[in-house]
Structures are given as structure tokens and as C-alpha cells.
Amino acid sequence: MKEDNDTRKKIRENALRLFQENGYDAVTINAICRASGISKNTFYYYYKEKKDLLFSMVHVSEESLSCIMYALAGISSPYEKLKAAYSAMLDDLLYLGPSVVRKTLELQLSSTMVMTGHPHPSDFGKLMFTLFEQAQKADEIRKDIPAEQLMQGVGFLILGAIQIWAVNDGKLDLKQTCLHQFEILLKPQK
């Protein structure tokens, strides 16, 4: 299992470097295999196609989720945990860079994906929903809107900021913008 994770990590790291240096469209599976020291069969063992590899870079991995959970354990406020979790997710996107994120958005929008949510939320989504509920119970965020709707609103807000950031080649302070808007949206109404 560790060898599988090491190989997958090596493929992702080399592909990301190549995508950042040359652009997604210019990078072939052969180039990824060469840079990773693997065969095409090995590549296809882990990923159905290059697009799947790209999507895997954007989705919160089990390893990233474990790191987030570990960091959250030291924070008592559910609201501060929410901010920290979203901040970590934004750090991951900033690491990927605007061109890689832009290509991911382009491929997702051109596929059959629908923006109405997923019938089976990810582990990260489940964590965030729990934190929204806890923050409401602690009176740290507004309660006039159900937690699920607040979470969707924050998700669309962040997605919009990510799109603006990616399309404008990173000429927006993504993290500051998202966290500021996050605060405005979630502050309890007085």
C-alpha cells in the first residue's frame, strides 16, 4: 500500500511540475511517465486518463484531510475550525497555481458535471457540514439559514473567487478575498 501511495505521489508531483512548466495541454502521458520513471501501464493502473490525474490534484486527498483534522484538533472554536479548514484548502489551490486550477475548472465545466451538489459528499464535505452545524450551535455563525444552505453559499462564493483568480492568472489575493467574504456571509445578523 505504501508503495502504491509513493508511486501515486511521484506521478502527481512530476505531472504538476510539468503542467506548471509547460501547460496541461502540452504535457503528454508519455512525458509524465518519463519524468516519473514509470511505464504507461503503471500510469493507467492509477489513472484512467490525464484528466483524472488533474482532477485528483484538486480534490482533498485522505492525506490532506488527515493533516487538516490534525490541525483542527488544536482549535476549540467551530468557526475558527471552519476558517482553518477553508484556509488549508485554499493553500492547496495556491500551491497548484492558477493555470492548473483554470484547466481543471475548464475540464469540469465542459464535462457532464452538474453544479447542484453531489449525492455522496466527500469526507471533506462531511467535515465541513459538521463544523457548520457546530458553529451554529455555538452561536458563532448566523442561524437564520440552515447549515446546509450556508455551506452551499460559502461553496459558491469560494468557487466564484477561485474562478476569478484562475482566469486572471492569480492577480487576486485569493485567500484574503475568500476569508473576508466568508466572514461577511457567516457573521450572525444583529
Overall description:
The protein has 2 domains: 1-58, Homeodomain-like (Arc Repressor Mutant, subunit A, Orthogonal Bundle), CATH 1.10.10; 59-190. The protein has 10 helices and no strands. The protein has helices spanning 2-22, 29-36, 40-46, 50-58, 62-73, 78-96, 98-110, 123-137, 147-167, 174-186. Helix 6 (78-96) runs antiparallel to helix 8 (123-137), helix 6 packs antiparallel against helix 10 and helix 9 (147-167) runs antiparallel to helix 10 (174-186).
Number of strands: 0
Based on Cα principal axes, name the global outline: elongated
Approximate strand percentage: under 5%
- Give the overall average pLDDT: 90
Low-pLDDT runs of 5+ residues are none
Describe the secondary structure blueprint for this structure.
Layout lengths: L1 H21 L6 H8 L3 H7 L3 H9 L3 H12 L4 H19 L1 H13 L12 H15 L9 H21 L6 H13 L4
Structure summary:
With 190 residues, the protein is mainly alpha-helical. It has helices at residues 2-22, 29-36, 40-46, 50-58, 62-73, 78-96, 98-110, 123-137, 147-167, 174-186. The termini are far apart.
